[in-house]
Amino acid sequence: MANVLVTGGAGYIGAHACKALAQAGYTPVVFDNLSTGHRAAVKFGPLVVGDLMERAAIDAALAEYQPIAVMHFAALSQVGESMQDPARYWRENVMGALNLIEAALAAGIDKFIFSSTCATYGDQDGVVLDETTEQRPINAYGGSKLAIEQMLRDFAPKGLNHVIFRYFNVAGADPEAEVGEAHDPETHLVPLILQAVAGTRGALTIFGTDYDTPDGTCIRDYVHVSDLVEAHVAGLEWLIAGKSSEVFCPGTGAGFSVREVVAAAASVTNGPVPMQEGPRRAGDAVRLVCGSDKARTRLGWTPDRSTMPQMLRDAHRWHGSDGF
Ligand code: UDP
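Above: inputs. Below: predicted complex with uridine-5'-diphosphate.
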């Protein structure tokens, strides 16, 4: 079975990607510094505890496991934190990616799958986003991811083919609850709602109720994590088939407001969601919804688990389990 190096494979999306890779017949080799990931999330292949800031550690992992491709999930990923400490985001995300790209090329690897973000678009209210939308990030997180996209384009002529995925909002958990979402601190809407319902934290605060949307709250395009990682496996097979470097926006095209997510969660959990209305959160775009079907038409991606009830049911099952 061919090995695939999965940086950040102990994290939320990376761990789900490892399961999808294993199911598709690959061996995921996790490279993770465990700063936010969980050792117990690494269930589908070996774990190398290492840091992307150390080139020698990457070289050693590549020499030992000889992967055919790299999936790069590892990154600092909080918008608010990136505004408070931009240097850390620019240093660790960009330098880490540069080390990884150089190490991959030196090891003769020619396939690279990268987790980017629609935060690279910035705040473009009213624009339905697709792969051709101009990228104008408004925070250091989005800026650092855009820099890595540019880096990949610059390195492509050196022989590193890439597939870039610009994520929308990722939610849900493995339907078999083998892996799930466990951030500390938790900042994401769905787990915060479920923790409020379970009483393991206080009421949810809705960040802003005066936006120019039908119910006044922000609108996002939510994708089931298991669907998202299937796009990555399809991206890997795209490169294995010798196809060109590409960018995909794997969104569903359906937008849900914060209040709609809360109402759906109340229905799925059979409980009221304790909540209060609060002020807007700095840096929030009003509406981020995908307007592209390129991942479906070109990759054959079918995000059929990405209905709001299914995402909430799977997340709820995971949150009711023992976790990691
Ligand atoms: N949100 C909220 N209260 C919270 C956390 C999030 O109202 O405690 C809102 C947030 O303002 C955004 C949406 O929920 O409109 C999704 O936020 P999340 O942090 O999950 O993802 P983001 O869109 O920032 O990537």
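The two ends are 27 Å apart (CA to CA).
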